[in-house]
Every structure is written in structure tokens, then in C-alpha cells.
Amino acid sequence: MRDRKQHASVGNISASFGVSEWQPKDSTASLIERTDQLLYEAKRLGRNRVMPING
């Protein structure tokens, strides 16, 4: 990746995501908690991952 203004390399960028689907029984807090757990699982498995909820 390069900085357009400085024309310099900015190094590597990594991204990990946790993805959940809203369920009728979910509260806002439970949805956020589940998604957060998936995010940390993605990071634990080596970063640069997307962890969807199973089931």
C-alpha cells in the first residue's frame, strides 16, 4: 500500500472481522457480544480472516 500524498510505502495492513446475523431473540448486547467473540476468534486464528457465525 502506498500513501498518495507522500508517495511512500505505508507497510502492510491487516484486517479481521466477526460477522453475525440478527436473530429475533437477540438483544443489541447479545448481538455485539457474539460478533465480538467471532472477531477475537479470527484474530486468534492468524488475523486477516472473516469469521461468520455458524448455525
Automatic annotation (TrEMBL):
Q: What phylogenetic lineage does the species belong to?
A: Bacteria, Pseudomonadati, Pseudomonadota, Gammaproteobacteria, Alteromonadales
* GO annotation, cellular component aspect: plasma membrane
Recorded protein name is: diguanylate cyclase
GO molecular function of the protein, one example?
diguanylate cyclase activity
Q: Which top-rank group of organisms is this from?
A: Bacteria
The GGDEF domain extends over 1-55
Kindly report, in one word, the top-level EC class recorded for this enzyme.
transferase
Q: One Pfam family this chain carries?
A: GGDEF
Q: What is its EC number?
A: 2.7.7.65
Biological process terms from the Gene Ontology for this record are: cell adhesion involved in single-species biofilm formation; negative regulation of bacterial-type flagellum-dependent cell motility
